[in-house]
Prior knowledge:
Helix content: 25-40%
Strand order of the largest sheet: 6-5-4-3-7
Number of strands: 11
Structural class: alpha+beta
Number of helices: 4
Largest sheet: 5 strands, antiparallel
Mean pLDDT: 79
Amino acid sequence: SAGFSRTRAGGRDSSARCGQSSAAVAMPATPPVQLDETLLGATVSLKTVLGEQVHGVVFAYDSTSKMLVLEQLVGHADGKGTCRMINTTGMSDLQILSKAATYSSAVGAEKHPLPAVDHATIKQREKRAILKAKEDAGFIGDGVTVRAQQIFDALRKTMPCAWDKQDMLVLNEIRIAPPYTPASCTGKGPAFNRVKKVLSGELEKLDVQT
Length: 210
């Protein structure tokens, strides 16, 4: 009958409920990993919403923004790591590969010492970043369209370019006025045809991308 399995042993029939048999071998479900400060220092594995498998050591977790920060040391022979921020609402299959060696909390045990900070190096990086930002800002046209800026950026990869109000000045010789086509180029010299050719090629690439 339904709900029973029947076998013959020693000439007699023996019956057992399937529900009881399956319960005996069923494995308990693995509870989900709790996201809190006890994960700090643990090595974990997770899957992003895009299906990417990510491994790393939990460096920080913020429950308000739901951001998990993982430190990844793979590929860094000098001991330096890469920190990756992941929104926990877009991840799944979080697993603990190894627990932290020591537990850190506000009232807990010994904390891991942080590496020394080289303030001189940080100042140099900051200075270079500011100079680079100012330089890049000089290449942004004032009041130009997004497409015009894309054309300018593409040309600047291979030739010196600057903005002169709404016009592009290439190699300090060739002027490209709106709508920034080969027909709107003016100038003279051996670079004239070269600029028109490069511009034509970049326009084709932008048209394909859009």
